Fold each of these.
Amino acid sequence: MNPATVVHGRLRAGVRREPLLPVLVILLLALAASFQEFATVANFRNIAVQASPLIIAAVGMTYVIMTAGIDLSVGSMLFLAAAIESSQAIVGLPTALVFAAVCAAGALMGLLNGVAVAFTQVPALIVTLATMQVFRGAGGHITGQQNINLPANLLGIGTGSLLGVPTPVLLAVAVALAGGFVFSRTTFGRYVQAVGSSPDAAANAGLPVRSVLVGAYALAGLLAAVASLTQTARLGAVQPSIGQGYELTVITAVVLGGTTLFGGRGSIGGTVLGALVLTTVQTGLVFSGASPYIFDIVRGSVLLAAVLAAGARWRNLAHAVRLTGRRRPSRDGPYNSATSA
Amino acid sequence: MEPSAAISAATTAQPGRLARLRDRTRHVGWLADLAMLPALIVLILVLSTMTDGLLTSSNLINVLSQSAVVAIAAIGATFVILTGGIDLSTGSVIGASGVASAWIITSSGNLAAGIAVGLFTGTMIGLVVGAVVARLNVVPFAVTLAALYVVSGGTTLLSHGKTIAPVPMGFIRFSIDGPGGIPYAVWLVVLLYVIAQVVLTRTAWGRRVVHVGASIEVARISGVNVVRTGTSVYAVAGFFSAIAGLVLTSGLAGAGASMGNPLLLNIVGAVVLGGTRLSGGRGSLLRTGIGVLFLGFLSNGMSLLGLQSYDQLIVTGAFIFLAASADGLFRWRRRRAVRG
Amino acid sequence: MNRFGVARYVAAVAVASLTLAGCGSSASSDGSDAATSAKKRTIGVSFDLLNAIRQAEKASIQKAAEAAGYSVVFDVADQDAQKQASQIQDLIQTKKVDAVIVIAQDGQQIASSASLAKARKVPFLAIDRAVADQQNVTFQITGDPVADGKAVADEFLAAAKTKPLKVLELVGGLTDQNAIGRRDGFNAALAGQPNITIVSQVPTDWNPTQALDGTSNALQKDPTINAIYIPSDFLLPSVQSALTAAKKLAPIGDPKHIFMVTIDGDQNGCKAMQAKTLDADIATPVEEFGKQAIAAVTTAVGGKPVDPKTVQAKGLTLNQANFATTSSQVWGCAS
Amino acid sequence: MFEHLHHDGEPTARQPAVIAVGNVSKSFGGISAVDGVSFTVSGGEVVALVGENGAGKSTIKNIIGGTLRPDSGHVSFGGAPAVEGVGSAKHSGVATVHQETSLFPDLTVAENILIDRLRSPGRATVRAGHLRRAATPVLQRVGAGFGPEAIVRDLSAGQRQLVEIAKALAADPHAIVFDEPTASLNLVERELIMGIVEQLRADGVAVLYISHYLEEIARLSQRVVVLRDGRVVADRPTGEVDRARLESLMVGRELAQGYPPLAPPRDAKALSVLDLGDGGRVSGVSFDIAEGEIFGLAGLMGSGRTEVARAIFGLAGDIGRVEVSGRQLRRGSVRACIDAEMAFVTEDRRHEGLFLDRPIRESLSIVDLDSVCRSRRIGWLDGGSEHRLTHELASKVHLVARGGLGADGGSLSGGNQQKVAIGKWLVKRPRLIILDEPTRGIDVGAKAEIYRLLVDLARSGTSILLISSEMEEVLGLSHRVGVMHDGRLAGILDRSQATQESVIRLATGGAP
């Protein structure tokens, strides 16, 4: 095959992988057309900043979902990390040390999830449903349900900026790029996709399935902690309600980005786009002065539309497989493998 | 396959009561459904030694009436999980149907109409969710997550976030008093569990639900209308969520859009604690009932102990995980045996 | 099968012991009161949630209760109306407390708990959040959200004398009577004021993140905003960081300064007052809540009717003018 | 057919055994899977490992591959004892080509082939360019017609099998274990793979070849090791054992030779298919089946045989007309077919045939659950009549269920699972029964029983549509043979005309 066709193929593959890009663009254009204050640098800056924690957490979640897993505890990890950041134990330590400690704690929480998922037969949904409560409880234990203000030195990571670019955005970009690189360019990343794509095959090939699972969840925990650092820094204080229901928002962003809950398929880029679309919709609604409850309805509908579209894509693929003879259990939801498997 | 074995199959062909009993108990049947019971008993004993008044009749009645809402919603959740699905929208449907009925009752004063509307609302939402899951064939987690957003957002919007109250005393009484000092709500739970368990184990529909969970391909090729079964199961779940919503409304003397949202964890938790398999095909209402009681006694005991709310979270989480892992251990051994 | 059962037993026993360990600690703190409550009267307290102001309210109750020789059993419902109903049921029927003090998660839905208390002849007292159906409530003391809203409005009017105000109004949870009262009191008082225009209303759902994002979006949408009404101090940090991000957090006197008034009077508010970034704070009289509630308990258990049956304690206005003289009476500054 | 045996390349005695299995035993939960098995494979020889299902072939494979550890005995590679774990076999240059394709559908071909050495040499990263360059030559070696960057999900079964082999070759091993490499392939692809095996042997690689296809064994192997009930019952040059002997060695008793005699079909049409299509590549398929007739459907894998069956049974597409004894059938509905007393035994037993983790009873009664309901309207089940029905069905198909019908379907052997998959349709005698690969992966004993069952059904008036990749089976059992080619029915041959040659000619697009 000549390079031209290769490039073209890559392009088409790219577009097929990120159908959300045009959606986002259209959305931005529409909003810019209807509110003149919307199309300002400052506002886009705003959206970027608000999307940053979500992007950071969602990149981690993408790894987990890619292994055909799920992590419901991310919201609670966010809170527990914040609680630790504000705790007496480490107050007054040098900034870098505090951040390191919080990140380590986050990785540890994720590690706990990962070990439970990899070494017991308990479904990830249940494991993280349990740790979701455990982590929030632990956080409450540390903070005693108090509102705790953070010392100024810990706020920079959320409010500061470098060369005019807000720190959270820099962090989000760094995490997204690193996440994308690790996913496509390291054995760990390839193994993550492999394990999600076919656990049996992974076992046959002698891949370190368990370490891969543990790694994915630990990464999710680490990134939840990073998201927590930026988020709480922006809020300036740790409140007991931090991260409540956040897991659903994060999962929504990932699924919106085209990563399938069956594992093996998806992309970091899609996740980033998903997070941006969600945030843009939210901002747009504020601009239009609509009730905040409309937001729930809108994002619910967007999510449904996304999975429906994705569903169609999977079916076509599965169809191709079927025509060539051997059928395998359908991956695009069980109900219509009559026309798909 | 030596001939003697072949004969053994032939001999079992005579339908003897004994052979039937053996067949029943041979596979993981009602015996396994009770597997969580010992744990429940241990829990109650431990808690009763640590608190005073846990085992008083009034407190037992409290536990039962406090568990009523979760118990009812968990019936629907069990059916859904038996098909290998999951319903995250339960809590929001509880809110929606509660608000709908409270709204009719307060505005028109017509109790029957209110109840009817509430049940209709829940069932319809379930029907739509089921149709999307089964007919359009979208992964349940995503669909019900979307439904959770749309329904709770919509309910809050329509009720302007206000709590709809007061509902008439007769309606409230339903969850306060009843025959033998035990609230009607509790009697209702018992009745519903008996019915649901019978439907699951003794009717064709129940059998189909389990089969869709066990292997949807086998079911389809054997002539089971998997789309209809899949759709109906979510409608049924919606129906039970609606009943739960009504009971909750009566218990709280009013309905608010968000009142059901905190319940989702307990509902799914109870089903899993009971030992119904999340991937479907194995489970029962008996298990779920035990799971509900487990969580009920746990939170009651902890609040009697004066445990901080966040400590209660930790303990509950630990219990859910441990129960599930005990079940997982068992399943793992089984699979190994089969492979060998 | 056996393995199955065994595994379950192991799990159960393991965690049962875990429970023991878990509550050994807290049982000693809270549980012991209940244990020794043979002679001592016990008051059951159920809060909707815990945060800065709730902690202050809890403290004021405990202080007054100790003084009057009561012991206190304390529950938190984590913003779950049904959980609160269950907790109150346990308090009354199982722990047999002599009186119940609640901060209702929902002013309407608490009614069933009130009627239960009535049926069991247990005094039922509500603080902070009003109960819709008063017939079964022994005593109720709340802030006066409408009056507080109006008090805030007065500060705005005063400020509007010098320059016209373009106001960003944050609104609390739309399901919360207090939030609605604070909004309506404020809006009513400012209706038709030429010099003051409310350019945008941001619903926060009492959620700090929503407050933060909403504020920055609003400031973005209308850069000319020069005044903000924050209906509760615990949203203050969110607003401050939004302002910092927009480079608009400046002390009084600085032309960039944005006129801000809040309600509650917690530590954050007090600090901001000292830092002169906050213009006024309507402090909730939490001390009164505890004092009067406990007094009412004494009357009620003594079998006498409580009078007055409902009290609305207006907030205490703390502004830069009276800060020196008044701050000592504000709970947030005291601690 | 055993005349043309390859006697060249007999292993010379001095060559060291590349794979040596010494007195290996392994049991699962008390049940012994293999017991004291010993054999060797030397460089440049193909050793065939045959045996019934459950004879222990896959256990041996897994022990050699390192995914299982033997309870006793030892495995050594080129003299060096193997340590436990997948790594060991790989390091010693022993590769396995799995039967159930062990590929990652969402990864590229290159990533699959190089899955355990993705990293570019001397770098910490994975680079697409390197993967492409490394994978291309291996793909050429197996004659693959697709590129290294293709996503495996989009490949056909045959192409996937080639990827499997390429994966094994990429490590250029001294020894390769093939586990049923051709089970799901068409003739052309089989030829390709057998060519590869012969090439490997010529290159001096030691090959352990596990297969049910005795023709392949006869053609490829120099030695054949026969397993029965976990023991080695024969280990001798392939030339010395003919097919019949081999089968009897596997089963442990002489088989009734050939296939049971067919009764003549009746005149009445049972099924007539007109211009059938599945909305995919299958179209314009028309044929009739008479009552009591066995109609074989032959053709290469991927020629659309399975699709025709699924289309008739309402599982794929709804183009064309299907009439059962004159009455036209509502298309695209399984229920309609069942109501018309049709039955369908799927090729994918484990996924579509029966419930592996529900009681066997439920798999048997599912088709006609109404018949065991007290009231059809509420569907109230009657345990007694369900028990009676299921035991009747069980004995009809000579089901051997040691755990009783309450045991899980997964506890049955492959053959007995297949009996359940067939038995559930026998509540009433079906008018037409479609069987897709009814004997795939089933041991010889069970095969014979199933053949007898089919012929008896036909004699009693049931029409049978029989799809099988085993040519002999189709020829031996069918009154007439329809041959598919590239989605169309290339021709229909009477029993008299139907020979291996004539069928192949049609199947490969030649004129009748």
Note: Residues 1-13 of chain D have pLDDT under 50 and may be disordered.
Amino acid sequence: MITVYHYMTVAAILFAMGTYGVLTRRNAIVIFMCIELMLNSVNLTFIALSSHLQNMDGQVFVLFVMAVAAAEAGVGLALMIAFYRNRDSIDVDDINLMKL
Amino acid sequence: MYDKLWLIPFFPLLGAIINGLLGKRFIKNEKVIGAIGTGMLFLSFLVSCKYFIQLLGDSVKSHQNVIASWMSVGKLQVDWGFLLDPLSALMIMVVTGVGTLIHLYSIGYMHGEEGFYRYFSYLNLFVFSMLMLVLGNNALVMFVGWEGVGLCSYLLIGYYFEKKSAGDAAKKAFVMNRVGDFGFLLGLFTLFWALGSHGVWTINFVEITENAHLLSGDMILGASVTTVATLCFFLGATGKSAQLPLFTWLPDAMEGPTPVSALIHAATMVTAGVYMIGRMNILFAMSPTTMFVVALVGALTAIFAATIGFAQNDIKRVLAYSTVSQLGFMFVAMGVGAFTAGIFHLMTHAFFKACLFLGSGSVIHAMHHALHHAHLDDDAQDMRNMGGLRKKMPITWATFGISCLAISGLPFFSGFFSKDEILWWAFASTRGNKVIWVIVVVAAFMTAFYMFRCLYMTFYGEQKTNPKAKDHVHESPWVITLPLVVLAGLATVGGLIGIPHAIDIAHVGNKLNAFLAPVFHHSQELYKIEAHGSASTEIILMVFSVAIALAGIGFATVMYMKDPSLPGKFTAKFPTLHRVVFNKWYVDEIYDTLFVNSTKKLGIFCWKGFDVKVVDGIVNGIAKLVGALSSVLRYTQSGLFTNYALTMVLGTVVMLAIFILN
Amino acid sequence: MELIFFYLIAIVAVASGFLVIRCQSPVNSALGLVNTFFCLAIFYVMLHAPFMAAIQIMVYAGAIMVLIIFVIMLLNLGTEARKRYTTGVVWSAIASLLVLFNVMYFIKRGRVTGAEGDITSYTVESVGHVELIGKALFTEYLLPFEIASILLLVAIVGAVVLAKKEV
Amino acid sequence: MENLVQIALQNVNMAAILPSLVLTCFGMGLLLINVFLPRGTTRHAVWISVIGLVVTGFFVYTGWGNPQYGFNDAVANDNYTAFFSVIFLFAAGLTILMSDDYLTREGYPVSEYYPLILFATAGAMWMASGTDMLTIFLGLEVMSIALYVLAGFFRGQLRSNEAGLKYFLLGAFSTGFLLYGIALIYGVTGSTKLTEIGIYLNAHGSLLENPMTLAGLVLLSTGFLFKIAAAPFHMWTPDVYEGAPTPVTAFMSAGPKAAAFAAFLRIMEYCFFSLKPEWTAMLWVIAVLTMVIGNVIAIQQTNLKRMLAYSSIAHAGYALVGLVAANEIGYSGILFYMLAYTFMNIGAFAVLVLAGKKGEDNLTLEGFSGFGLKRPFLGVAMTVFLFSLMGLPPTAGFAGKFYIFAGAVKAGYIWLAVIGVLNSAVSLYYYLRIMVYMYFRDAEEDYAWVSLPAAAVISIVIALIGVFYLGIIPGDVMEMAKMAIF
């Protein structure tokens, strides 16, 4: 029998993997993809819980998370392109003009 | 009635605003600017006089005038309110009176300076803040004034901002004052919380006085609440009033214009700490421990600053250390429970020290003028460049001399009465202590000595000014000498309002004591603070202290008047003394080697070693420590995304982990 | 049977997630991510949320991933220089493991309780998932729905402002 | 079908969203009008947006004392919302007024800037008014996305690019945590509505021991503490504040910070009031850490924008003290403090905007040598704002700190108050350094007499009035703040 905890465990693993990716990768786009992975693990949690609790709130929430993800993708990629134009790189280690 | 009290601080504020906003572009004329600044303060003085007289004839001695509500927190109600009682009435008289004279003096002294309008604007703002401090009916209004005077002092010390030393001095003064302010706030917190735990949420002085008895027996951190709170307040006072260990800013503050030194760093602002203790006397009276600390710190400061005064050649620095020392006397008075005597000395000190500073300013002004005329860049403040100015500047000399007599405590000058009352209380009070009395007596001796040294070096002997400039030294104009004369007059007769009972032959009574009784008697009676001793003892002590003062003057005369080319007039006046000086060369040398040099060395050691190294070291050390921490911590800010994200994750993980472990 | 199927999908999902975080080429990462999305869509179907599964495919795999891949192509990104195994990476690994342990701990010890609603799998099948979602969106969640439109408007304006060459 | 429409309409209560509705309408209208406005200047857009803000302010005013709820309890237009809305409106208004000349000077007279600020403000208002996690989350995202764009608005400047990108990546990352927190809370309570969560948690006492509740709380806090810029989630702040266009920095330091406080405070009070001992203990540590880190690192800074960024971290710490106090004075103190902070901080940034030259390389301590004497108006204004930031009476900063620390003392957190006071003593050091440079150093260059742009001067004057009004007569506003909290 698959319980909600199974899904939540998978989601937790994916969330931790996304975190790991954010912390270790250098390419801003890949980092953004890792963030998407984290958001998706949250979506899975929401839908699993929604199904378990038998109400719609979680699923509707996921719908909005998707909208937000889309909006973030649009703006984020635009920012990356702008940065790339000036710096010729999208390596996050090159975002180093301001520090200390 | 008393509903126009707000006019007193209002006028100086108005003056500050007018001069500050319009001075540069629209008024421009120095005379008008000076007239506005002085006039506003004079108006304020007139209002003060009116209320002072009204209060004298009133049977109720405490009046509050609330203008508007400021803040309310729960049951705590804080108002923009004023409190007029004998203590604050006396203070406003001193502040506005001496303030007006110094404003008048400034017109002459600051003539032709760049930023004349700025100076008057700041000075008026200072008086406004000082009046807020004095008149405030609760601790927060007092704190507004407390901060305001600090700010104005900061701005005025740094008035000659082109000089780096001026900027540094200003910064030092501000930072040291803030250390003190931290103590003040901490004390306020403690008091607020302690009274609050009895259900009395208040910071109004009248209510604090009424409810102080609730605190007896309360403990915090193993000490009684009153002790902790008053010690914190006292820390605040040490910062503002330049007591050990936070006194080093005051001598540096002499970088400001001389009238500023006279008004802020002698007559008014630095006495705020004394006033504050007077305001909260009931709390201090409740804690013998704090009282003892206050007296001890005061006594140590008095003697310590006096020794340093020996080794200084800058005329303003001598006066600055003298101020620190005299403030020590006031704190001794507060510490032994002689609240009236402390306030009395505050007042007389305001007269004679303002006069001394203004006199020195007059000398510096003349010297500066002469040196400038001769295109020399000798130090206009170095006493070694002066000497023999008595004939050139007779009025300045006379007033300076009178003030020296007053500060030394010669009979029937104002300083005599106030200092003597302090000594008597230190000796005989229930909170007094013979050791403190001894220290203070020695300090009094030294005071007489170095003040007369200063007087002699400046006005007597041969003029050591560069010959080129010698003849250009002239007496200052009337706007400068008039305040000197008035202040010298006050320094002479000002003491008569507080004639001690023992020598009150004419039975005029101690007017000041009676006047201030409504403020202080309650706590003195409640906590059994009194000076007890026979009149004969008092008279013996009085004679002794006069002898001490004379001895100090004598020593100074012996050492600094030995020059053979002394004007014949002086020789004729003190023939014996002169003969002693003239004939006893060896005595002089012995003194020089044994006493003067060693004391000088001690003085220099204290100044260089303790003042500069230890005190500054501690202050700078803390600053450096924080600075070092800062430069380490800033490297966490590596600019790298990865590190930032990692910190966030770790922060979250730690928070989660703490919840797991719980 | 269902459990085995679940494990199978879960393993594929985690494996493709691993591809996302380990592949040197961004395109491979992107493909791994798409694969994860598909696995999640399958989960959604198993959780009686077919509409969400469809949206997952269409919005995530269809729109967002296409955009990402498009940008990767546009910038012509090669393989990423591998981060040296510095202390930073070790710290990161430790940190993410800690996150995992923490969250797993909380999930294992915690209980999903919550007020249960009345939307059972039976309701979903009889009424239809799309209708349920639609009703919820236009009754209970009307305001968030409108805010979402502003959100997308802001994103559009922002993207235009940032990416346009000339004003 | 008609039945459905009726159900939908039942939930609609326009009064509950009136201010934000008006504001978004102005934003969208401005976007359309922009097409017809002349290019190369943004003056018209400034005045249209200011009118929009004033009109919105009017609707906020009419909503005071008349709480409206609607949209199936997704939103509440109560006094709390109104108070925070005023803060956001002031933040946006002052920012917009100072932006016009700045954008032209820096070579980006792009009118889309203003609708973005209006939308960010509307997002902040949804955060403050949201009573459903979903509304708050979407408000947060509207605000954040607008801010990502605004931070990277100077797309030809590398610093601005970096600021935008860094803010975006870290912001999106923190969003992940926030969402996970919301998901876990949803799992525990079965709802995303704040009141229902609170009632459920309160009714089921055993849930307080449920680790999932605590995990949700922590993850949720991470998301908001990031926006508040509390340590250790503060690290983006200095970099982003330094790189972003100065008016945007001014806006970010006041409006969004206040919005995050608004949402965080409401969530904590509505949902987790039964967990108060836990989260106050957690926030105690964070408040201290935030104050210390902000103030201590600021000491070493020479770039003024960066210094003010660290100072804004420290001020977030002071405001958190009010949250730890968790009593009436503490909460209303936060509201008051945020308003005061808006005036004093945006005022200080407005002075920087006017003092800067193209490229803003002169916004350093050295560059400020003699500034106070050569540009008297700006010098005096800066002095007042710095005094307020230091917390000297009679300015707004003092009254704000007074309330916050009084709240802490009343709640028994004497040590926290002491640490706070000690920290403001440390903060003097770096604020004072600015003044020392302004007044006690000689100017390295001649300042030519320049006429100041009227709009920016208006914004400084408003900020000055605010600082003094809140400092001298804080009573009225404090009363309103008390009426505003729950």
Note: Chain A has one domain: 4-89.
